[in-house]
Design goal:
- The chain has no helices and 11 strands.
- The N and C termini lie far apart (40 Å).
C-alpha cells in the first residue's frame, strides 16, 4: 500500500551539494531521513512533520542539510550542502504517523539511495 522511492544519490566531492528526493504514495505522513554506512547502525538524519511545520535534525548535519516537503507532489527532499566524506552512506526515507527521530516509530521505508562523498 504505502511505497517510498528515493532518488538523487551519487558520487560527489567534499563541499558539493546534493538533493535527495523521496516520492511517497499511500498517505500523508511525518517523514524522516536516515542513513547507514557499512559496519554502522542506521542513524537518524532529519525529520519533518506531516504538514511541514516542524523539522528536526541530528547535530551532525545542522546548518548543512535541509529537509522539506511538497505534499502536492507527495515528495520529501533532503538538500545536502557542504557534504563531507563522513556523509557517505545509503540514505533512506521513512514514513511515520508520529514525528520524531527514533527509527522504531517509522513504519515504512524506502529502498535507499547511495551517497558517496570522495575527493
Amino acid at each position: 500500500q504505502v511505497q517510498l522511492v528515493e532518488s538523487g544519490g551519487g558520487l560527489v566531492q567534499p563541499g558539493d551539494s546534493l538533493r535527495l528526493s523521496c516520492v511517497a504514495s499511500g498517505g500523508i505522513f511525518s517523514m524522516g531521513w536516515f542513513r547507514q554506512a557499512p559496519g554502522n547502525e542506521r542513524e537518524f538524519v532529519a525529520a519533518i512533520m506531516w504538514n511541514g511545520n516542524k523539522q528536526y535534525y541530528t547535530e551532525a548535519v545542522k546548518g548543512r542539510f535541509t529537509i522539506s516537503r511538497d505534499n502536492a507532489q507527495n515528495t520529501v527532499y533532503l538538500q545536502m550542502n557542504s557534504v563531507k566524506p563522513e556523509d557517505t552512506a545509503v540514505y533512506f526515507c521513512a514514513a511515520s504517523t508520529r514525528f520524531g527521530y527514533a527509527a522504531e516509530i517509522y513504519d515504512y521505508w524506502g529502498q535507499g539511495t547511495q551517497v558517496t562523498v570522495s575527493s
